[in-house]
Amino acid sequence: xxxxxxxxxxxxxxxxxxxxxxxxxxxxxxxxxxxxxxxxxxxxxxxxxxxxxxxxxxxxxxxxxxxxxxxxxxxxxxxxxxxxxxxxxxxxxxxxxxxxxxxxxxxxxxxxxxxxxxxxxxxxxxxxxxxxxxxx
Length: 136
Hints:
By secondary structure, this protein is an alpha/beta fold. It has helices at 12-23, 41-53, 71-79, 93-100, 110-123, 131-134; strands spanning 2-9, 29-35, 60-65, 85-89.
């Protein structure tokens, strides 16, 4: 079983998770962690660990963060564990929708799941009207 935690600055995590769950009804566990702008590193880490500790029964956990290099990502990197907890930065709504639908895919292992999700999220970023968007 796989679970996900979305970690962002401000309330973005809650809004993304709410939107994704509205689009896809799924049994896949997905939780937001909203880091306040005034939270210390320790406070932020406690918030993430509180949710992560509830996911001990899950084989895999993906930590989705808003932007590479920010506090949410740096905290997630400190919690990453090979073959159990992986971090994906640059979270967007399409990647979470795909994550909630992951049980329909035939994927094996955390790295394969992460790669699949990132590929799908990248494909959702387009500039309307560019010729290469019409050729795909």
